[in-house]
Amino acid sequence: MAKTARKRRTEPSLRRIELKNLWSIYSEKDTKSVFAFAEDYKKFISSCKTERESYVYFSEMSKKSGWEFFGKAGKGTKKVLIGNRDRALAVVYLGKKGIENGFRLVGAHIDAPRLDLKQKPFFEDSNIALMKTHYYGGIKKYQWVSRPLAIHGIAVLENGKKVKIEMGEDDNDPVFVIPDLLPHLAKNVQYTKTLPDIITGEQLNVIAGQKEVRNEKSKAKLVEFLLGLLNKKYGIKEEDFVSADLEIVPADKARDAGFDRTFVGAYGQDDRICGYTAWKAVEGLKEQPDYTSIAFLIDKEEIGSDGPTGAQSSWLLDIIVKLLAFTGRKNDFAQINDVLSRSEAISADVNAAVNPMFKEVHEINNAAISGYGVVLTKFTGSGGKYSTNEATAEFTARIRGIFNKARVHWQFAELGKIDEGGGGTIAKYLSKWGMNTIDCGPGLLGMHSPYEVVSKADLWETFRAYRAFFENK
Questions:
Q1: Using one digit for the tens of pLDDT, what is the confidence trace for 107-117?
Q2: Taking the alpha carbons of 199, 202, 205, 211 in that order, is the dihedral positive or negative?
Q3: Backbone φ/ψ region at 32: left (φ over 0), alpha (ψ -120 to 50), beta
Q4: Contact at 8 Å (CB) between 169 and 266?
Q5: HSE value, Cβ hemisphere, 13 Å, CA-based, for 182
Q6: Range of 425's domain?
Q7: Do 278 and 359 reside in the same domain of the chain?
Q8: Which residues pair with 439 in a beta bridge?
Q9: Are 458 and 315 in a shared domain?
């Protein structure tokens, strides 16, 4: 009897999801790239603490790389900037296939939780001049007391002139402080309250000074003296605060964290970390992409994406209209709709990395682990997937394939346990135009705190993920 050859097994391999600490598999060359990328990122995140400052940074750095603002860009220009009220920016690299064939968009928000000065901020009490604030976005109010703070922003004068105000960052600048109550007297005033009520919104008052004018007739001598100082330094008066965007932010700079310097600690990483990596991904493209690539840097996400600079506005449609006209294509409704239906988007936003001190809020099997790579999030929202975009299985598979082909290290996660809370991104506002959209970004520790922490490995993999998305044909 003749021998028969043994048949080879043709069943597909059972590929399990096995995540690894990236520092254990990075080569020495990889590690150098990761650390070098983080150094430039730290410079950005230290200096850009408001959406306006981020707008200026991305605009100026893009122009150095050959981008031109719409309206100034000549025919044949492939790199176009489109701004929105100095608070939101689209960095566009026109593709070989033409905008009519759709685009690839990575959308990130460049606003962050903070304190805003009220329109009439100054008052005095107990021989101290103070400034009243209104918190912006989701914060734990107690985290903002008894720490050095700085003022960033602009005041717009009645004649339209913009006056930049920044104080608290230079070593020679004074800082600003919201004083907490000493523990010796906190027994009844704080310790009997729940955590959200330990500090109230109206108690977030910033110390402004103590000197007074030598004028016995003045009813607000301390405030009058401070207004005189501000007028002398910036040429502004009290009424100018009505038309000002002045933000109180932590005075800290970005620093390496940990003995091995594998983390970055900084304010405002949610979500300027995604803004920076999205911009860096499109700005660093070595050749013209097949599809038009857009870093869509948006405002107001932390308070619902409302307003003309938020993702709920029609600004994205305006961008498409401009790009169609710029490239000589029709820009009627049907064409705009076709462009959107052929486009794909990544909602670039952070997820919550597991905090070892509070593991109970996560379902560990579906949670982001720091240092394991960029996080894909199929849906956000809360409870029964309320108020969210959920990426289709088909589009999720496509993105997964792009990342695997580019050897991007990625993981997947939900935002905490189902009944624990939740949160949203701009994904649902992008997908409403008919684009396939998925959330993707790094995991953060201490999200929405004055000093958030990210693994440099996750920062690097986020950049690589967005670049692979733009480069994919």
A1: 999 999 999 99
A2: negative
A3: alpha
A4: no
A5: 2
A6: 22-112+267-471
A7: yes
A8: 347, 377
A9: yes
